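# nightly structure sweep
# worker-07 picked up a monomer target from the shared queue
# config: single-sequence mode, recycle default, output format = structure tokens
# input follows
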Amino acid sequence: MFETLPIAHRAMRICGICDVMTIEITLLGTGSPIPDPNRAGPSTLIRAGGQALLIDCGRGVLQRMAAAGASANTLSALLLTHLHSDHIADLGDLLITRWVTTFTPDPPPLPIIGPPGTAEVVEATLRAFGHDIDYRIAHHADLTTPPPVEVREHTTGQVWDRDGVQITVAPTDHRPVTPTIGFRVEYADGSGTASVVLAGDTVPCDSLDALAAGAGALVHTVIRKDLIAALPQQRIRDICDYHSSVAEAAATARRAGVGTLVLTHYVPAIAPGQEEQWRALAAAEFDGPIELGDDLHRVEVVAGG
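# output follows
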């Protein structure tokens, strides 16, 4: 089962989800590497069991988090599907902002879970902000160490088990970008289990089918290969061979038997009035509910969804 919340209700349901067996999906950024005034870079917020999980951190993510009633200093973990620039563009902003807006003494490090290479990227990002970090430590008596992080690199298996929320990862196929991973988030108690899978950028693959099997919702990035293939620039046409089309993402949802398909990371951006055209392409392969929309679009998945 799912529920899409209108904009007027977005701020009202943030804490209420903790009282029911629900996972809440917020599409923070539905854009692509091409800057779009209406769409932030790829990023999704998952709320479950009082925990806030950020999946990828594309450009503009902190502004979108603020609009969704979330913040860097309340995140439980950052999950990275892969290390393409559009998915990590605001990593530095996220780390620094969390650091300077956390006022409790000795705050715990931010868990960052991603594929091999994540630790190197995080280290390089903090090094790039080294002057800023030094300035702030020199200026503020209560800032005595750099931003605390705890990086964990994984390609398969369970990576999180806290207060009823479990996260499992599996490899995806975005070659030549490798390794890449998808995440399955489950929230369970005695009444049942709600589950959401976040595919990241990938072509269809058996490992994603297995990760998504029976999930309440599948959040999948999509491109319109029919439109992109007609463009004159080879560099742009190249993206067709390592992303899923709308129909391919829908076929993955059908094979996996998921409850709801949530589309995001639209390439090209969905033009006003074209939503039903995109939905129809997915519906040709998947007969369940299909969610797509603008940044801050929200979907709830309940136990057994």
